[in-house]
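Subject: sequence -> structure tokens, single chain

Hey, anyone have a minute? Need the predicted structure for the following. Not urgent.
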Amino acid sequence: MAPKTNRNKRQRDRKAEKERLYGELFAPYEPSHPYSLHFVHNATTCDELKMFIDNAQTTTNFVFDTESDYLTNFPSIIQVMFMKQIQENSLVLIIETAHLPVESSYEFLQLKQLFYLIFRRQSHIYTWGALIDELTPFLQFNLFHLPVSSYIHNTQQVFKLWFNDWLAFQSTLNDNDDQDNDDTLIINAPAFDPIIFLHPLAINNIKRSRNESWSIQDATAYILNQYLPKKCTLRQWSIGLDDRILNRTRTFSSTYRKKMISYAANDCTSLAAIITFMYQSHIPSALQCVQYPLDIGEYSFDQEQNGSSLSFQVHLEDITTSDDEDMDYPMAVHDINERHSMEISNAEPYHQQLHDDNVLTIINDSNLLNDNINIKQKIRQRRTVQAQKRRNQKTSIRHRKNRYIYEIIRPVNMSIKLVKNKLKEFGINYLNVNIVRSQLYIGLKSHQDQIEYENLLSMNSFV
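Reply:
Had a minute. Here:
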């Protein structure tokens, strides 16, 4: 036990020394983008939750972080930042899972709807570390299910690749004497004594040779030249941070709570600032993301399909995905068991085959016609019954997902036939209805229909 105790003590001492050093060398971290902070707990009103839901519907990019209690490791808060354009105000939510609304309440249902919108297929989720590691402890609260169908960006993993590529890019610029390029971003790492603060090239070589991950504190120091305190990491996060929580632990002062709140918010806003810097550098590795293959339950590293700049930029646009039937994107399906049982397989390279055949010398039009007929016959022969079935499954699920872009969720304890009769009585034109675990999902045609029918259908309409 003694060697382990000594090792832990040395680790704590090194962290304390880093905190002291960064505090002396850098100005304290200050968010560079405007944001408004909100809490979600058992005192949050329906109107507040409705406002969060409305914002989620118009947001594509989200930053996630979580905190758990020190010692007990109880999952206590989820931080979510709604990433807007740089000049716009972004929402930062602190969801206090130790003080959630009663699960049978309307507020809890609204909170589930909020997570459903955040984790929809079109969303891009940014974390510092693996999302599944962050969210798995919170599954016990029944707010969401894993896996999610969104694009997942492990910024910590991408950062190591990006930083190395960025240094190589800067070296090329230096060799070409092209420092006057207005489109170039420069990391102005301070020229301190290398014994106490390493040069960017040195820290990069150490990280790569030891296969070490970057901490967000180090990334903030080297990229933003600011000190991001991490002293609050080991804290009791379930005390109730918002003063509106009646059963909060009152032994902690308001000053103590404010420090913890600032720490929680800064973890999101600092990551957003790092993402901004990375994407504005125009280094290709910044466009990589992680997708969640449903059949193996693990993360895979992938290049972004659409090649677009996805994040926190001056001209942020909604991300659209291809409707190509051969694309194996995870689909948003309400039936959890069905989603896990989906067979995901790579489509056959038909387009590549066409390309290879077309490089042959073409003598005349009849040969060209015969070649094309032969190619089509080969393609039809290669497409087995199982391949057609998989293709049809993916097409069907994609169409089903599209029916739920605009949806209303309500509790239900009646059959689907009675639900449809009720909807006809209300005069509601729906695209599709589905019941999963006593919850009714109503797919609608437009956002305007969603707003209108939300007010028309009460929470007791189908119970």
